[in-house]
Amino acid sequence: MKQKVEILDYRLLKLLIRKYLSARFNIDDSNHFCKDYEPPCLMISNHITNYDPFIIAAYTKYPLHFVASDRQFIHPVKGFFLRRYGALPKTKFRNDYHAIKDIQRIIHDGGAVGLFPEGRRNWDGRTGELVFSTSKLIKLLNIDVIGVTIKGGYLSQPRWALNSRKGKVFLSSRVLIKKDSLQNMSYEDIYKVISRGIMHDEYKFQSNKMIRYKGKNLAEKLELGLFICPVCKDIDSLRSKGNIFKCMSCEATWEYDEFGFLQSRFKYFSDIKEWNQWQIGVLKDYLRKDAVIQAESVRVFSSSRLKPFTREGEGSIKIRGNVFLFDSLQSPLTIHISDIDGINVQSNDMLEFYNGKKLYRAVFLDGYSSAYKWALSLNMIKSNFG
Ligand SMILES: [Zn+2]
């Protein structure tokens, strides 16, 4: 009886979520060919909006257990929906024995598991590098792999943005790997197939489609994603207001239009992906020259074992050479960047990383400092610019 109630509960919830999402994002699932596939299977997808697991699950006929960051479960509303959706908690970017056991159990019982192998939402609409261990997981599970591509998601809810927009979101899916062919595939073979299978370039797609994504204050918070001015090369000088994006150092100005492109008399980058790829190269050169990255007015928190965050103090943070510094009266910190892992941007504006078992979170009080820039910098130094 309890199980019946739960199934009914799940179906009703799914129906309500689908109605909500369809009204909000205008979803087209006509190319979601695997929506009634026979599980067990593993479904992987590119990751763009906060709503991705809900969008895919709502438009798929069988129950999907998504792997989600354990921290998401702490959020009261999100946690409620994730639990009801049968989501599986995993620690971001760290090996997680328990998550793998959970996945194996669901597959063993004939279920379907959903996964975002990029491990994070991308910042410029182009599918990022996948976590390599996904291929190992696929081989271990020995299962059919379905690839889902979400198109139009980035323009509907860019990672940096405050507001979402309404245009159209397309959901497409196909079988990428059949279980039978897995034994003859190396990890590298699997990696290539899945990387290609969920690759999506939003700006390339939009150049052909030219769909309007309507909303208010379209450029607001773009400086969280784009942090180097292409005209004067200044770092942290860009600010947004309404639809306008402007460099405070050289006065260069862009207008974000309803198609997601940047209009300007300054002939530098009309799309965010190109601008982002360019700034990553500039940042790398900058850090290679041992330049110091710094932010004032930062509040640092820490947590261990999923306990609520406690405040470490307020002050400035700095990257100098191979060291991350937090300068505050209460509890100054010096951490070698090689001892940092799980580097991640929480929401779109908070920097998080692990040092041993301790999770640190830096909140930028100015409201415009790019946590993405910090995450990129720490990752570049940690990988020795590889
Ligand atoms: Zn400038």
Task: Describe the SSE topology.
Elements: H1 2-25, E1 27-32, E2 41-45, H2 52-58, E3 64-69, H3 76-84, E4 88-90, H4 97-108, E5 112-115, H5 133-141, E6 145-151, H6 153-156, E7 169-177, H7 187-197, H8 202-209, E8 238-241, E9 244-247, E10 253-256, E11 262-263, H9 272-288, E12 293-304, E13 310-320, E14 323-328, E15 333-336, E16 340-346, E17 350-355, E18 358-364, H10 371-382
Parallel strand pairs: 1-7, 2-5, 2-6, 3-4, 3-5
Antiparallel strand pairs: 6-7, 8-9, 9-10, 10-11, 12-13, 12-18, 13-14, 14-15, 16-17, 17-18
Helix pairs in contact: 1-2, 5-7, 9-10
From the alpha carbons, calculate the radius of gyration and give it in angstroms.
21 Å
Structural category: alpha/beta
Main β-sheet: number of strands, strand sense, barrel status? 7 strands, mixed
Q: Which molecules other than protein and nucleic acid are bound?
A: zinc ion
CATH topology of the largest domain: Glycerol-3-phosphate (1)-acyltransferase
The poorly predicted ranges are none
Number of separate helices: 10
Number of domains: 3
Global geometry: globular
SSE order, as H and E? HEEHEHEHEHEHEHHEEEEHEEEEEEEH
Kindly estimate the percentage of residues that lie in beta strands according to DSSP. Answer: 25-35%
Number of strands: 18
